Automatic annotation (TrEMBL):
Protein name as it appears in the record: OsmC family protein
Alphabetical list of Pfam families matching this protein: OsmC
Lineage: Bacteria, Pseudomonadati, Gemmatimonadota, Gemmatimonadia, Candidatus Palauibacterales
Domain of life of the source: Bacteria
Organism of derivation: Candidatus Kutchimonas denitrificans
PANTHER family tied to this protein: HYDROPEROXIDE REDUCTASE (PTHR35368)
């Protein structure tokens, strides 16, 4: 990361910290993502100006027209880790010449299909962080440890979340009239 870009990131980071310290309420909000089944097992994902797509593989009954939800979930974790490392590296004055995060997830698809009382989800998730830097190993580890402690999606994957379902059933008879 260039020095100019790192300085810009550090300045924004510190400004955000000051704003949150002065007015903690500005840090709270609700993000809303809408996912709509578009045909078969394909979905359109929408949040604000962003549009993404998801589908399952042909062997799972989909058309393989887009990444599956597992890829998107692992990408969310990997990108959140990578950007957290970059934020904290800029804040702490550590330059990375290369930063790569590989997310590995062990799974058993029997859970997805309700076979053999196997729970759905991952058995284990690992992430491998590759860093190239002139900084010392202790400086690099300080950045990585601090970033891991503050990484939103690492917390989502690592810690139980309060998840609630709300169901809205539309009255089809009202459409027919």
């Amino acid at each position: 990361m260039s020095g100019v870009r790192a300085e810009r990131i550090k300045t924004k980071f510190e400004r955000n910290v000051r704003a949150l310290e002065l007015r903690p309420g500005v840090g709270r909000g609700t993000a809303v993502t809408t996912v709509r089944l578009t045909g078969g097992l394909a979905c359109e994902i929408e949040e604000g100006p962003w549009r993404l797509a998801s589908d399952l593989s042909e062997k799972s009954g989909g058309d393989n027209s887009a990444p599956n939800p597992g890829i998107i979930g692992r990408a969310a974790l990997g990108t959140c880790l990578a950007t957290s490392y970059a934020l904290w590296a800029a804040k702490m004055g550590v330059e990375f010449d290369l930063l790569e995060v590989e997310v590995q997830a062990d799974y058993d698809t029997r859970g997805m299909y309700g076979v053999d009382d196997v729970p759905p989800g991952y058995i284990q998730i690992r992430y491998v962080v590759t860093v190239e830097s002139e900084a010392s190993e202790s400086e690099i580890m300080r950045v990585l440890d601090q970033a891991d402690a503050c990484c939103d999606y690492l917390a989502v994957f690592r810690d139980p979340q309060d998840v609630r379902r709300e169901v809205k059933i539309l009255d089809r008879s009202a459409k027919a009239e």
